[in-house]
Amino acid sequence: MDNEPSYKDKKVISIGVVSELTGLTERKIRYYEEKNLIFPQRSNRGYRKYSFSDVERLMDIADQREEGVTTKEIKHELTIKERKEAKKKMIKGQLNAQFGVQKK
User: Fold this and answer.
1) Which pTM was predicted?
2) What is the pLDDT of residues 1-25, one digit of tens each?
3) How many of the other CB atoms lie within 10 Å of CB of 24?
4) Potential cystine with 40: which of 44, 48, 82, 103 (Cβ 3.0-4.6 Å)?
5) Which pLDDT belongs to residue 3?
6) Class of the domain covering 7-99
7) CA dist., res. 38 & res. 61, Å (int)
C-alpha cells in the first residue's frame, strides 16, 4: 500500500481539463512536455493523462514564464529539486532500514 500513489499523483485528468484548469492552451502543455518539464502518462489509446501534481507544476511553470524565466532555466531548477528529493528519499530509506521497526 505504501507504493500506491497519492490521489495527487494519479494520472487521471485529460489535457482538455488541464487546459481549462491552468488557462494554458493544449499546444502549450504539449510544448512543456516536449521540453521535459511535464511527464503525462498515455492511455491505451494514446491520450495524455495528467495528475493534480502535474496541474500544479504547469501552473508554476506558467508563473515562471510570465516572470521571464526560460524553459531551460526551469528545467535546470526542476532537475536540482528532483535530485534533492531523491537524495532525501534515499537517506530516509537507509535510516528506516538501519533503525526502523521490523514487522512481525
Assistant:
1) 0.76
2) 456 778 899 999 999 999 999 999 9
3) 21
4) 48
5) 66
6) mainly alpha
7) 10
Domain ranges of the chain: 7-99
What rounded mean pLDDT belongs to the chain? 90
Cross-sheet strand order for the sheet of 41-42: 13-14, 48-50, 41-42
25-57 exposure pattern, b = at least 16 Cβ within 10 A, e = fewer: eeebbeebbeeebbebeeeeeeebbbbbbbbeb
If we measure between CA atoms, which residue out of 82, 83, 88, 87 comes closest to residue 57? 82
Measure the CA–CA gap between 60 and 64, rounded to whole angstroms: 6
Q: So what's the pLDDT on residue 49?
A: 97
Greatest alpha-carbon span in the chain: 55
The closest alpha carbon to 54, from 94, 103, 14, belongs to: 14
